[in-house]
Amino acid sequence: MLAWACIAPHGGEVIPELATHCPERMAATRSAMEELGRRCGRQRPETVVVLTPHGICIEGRVSVSIASVAAGTLDGENGVRIGMRFDVDLELAHAVSALASDALVPIAEVGYREDGSPIELFPMDWGVTVPMYFLGAQWAEAPRIVVACPDRALPRKTLVEFGRVTVAAGKRVGRRIAVVCSADQGHGHTSDGPYGFAPLSAQYDAAYCRAVADDALHRLLSWRNDRIEAALTDSYWQTLVLYGALTASPLVPELLSYEAPTYFGMACASFDRR
Fold this sequence. Notes:
The protein is of the alpha/beta class. The chain has a single domain, classed as 3-Layer(aba) Sandwich (Protocatechuate 4,5-dioxygenase, Chain B), CATH 3.40.830. It has helices at about 25-45, 90-100, 125-135, 155-170, 200-215, 225-230, 235-250; strands at about 1-10, 45-50, 60-65, 65-75, 80-85, 105-110, 120-125, 145-150, 175-180, 250-260, 265-270. The strands form two sheets. The protein has an eight-stranded mixed β-sheet with strand order 6-3-8-2-9-1-11-10, with helices on both faces. It is globular.
């Protein structure tokens, strides 16, 4: 069953140990991420499914982690390095892949050796490690995880369907799951950022936050591709997967925070049972 879900950013500075000389810069987001951690912990998910835009992306497919363990590290500008590892829920990963294939969602199971056995270690990108720092890495008993990365070129209905089958797979294997939409927002909020200034970044972020707060993620289905691209966001595609999961098992949204303290926007939202 879908016990809980969230939208969580993945700017590394939100992690206290990786904050630079200006720890207050992402204070609002850090506080919201800590609240997400508390809410997730109260629901006690057995497995956390992380939807990342920065993982192993395969053209025309959704990649799904197949390995014994997932692990990753993050380096801060202050010279500090943090690391974490989680057991991968192989049973759930295979169930997600099987149901997705049945629903004609193109899947790539990632992490096999030449003999067909799973590799021992699946690499976690920062889109996974930053949210999971708050959502299980420091728990007394860490959850298992499954990592999925959708190709941005996939049709919108395919992304939504993958979200639906993820929840169905959890039910099939009797697993209590949480779905994490790892997402930063527009990346063009300042002219001195790596992507320059993009006026549509702020507009996209505002419309996105309204859709979340209004429990109306379906609005994203009608947004124009050219405006999404011009907003320089990395939240759109995995949010459609989240929307699909919520259509299969509705939860109540609460937008906890939004800020753009640097060149990109960050939103935190919790989806809880009534």
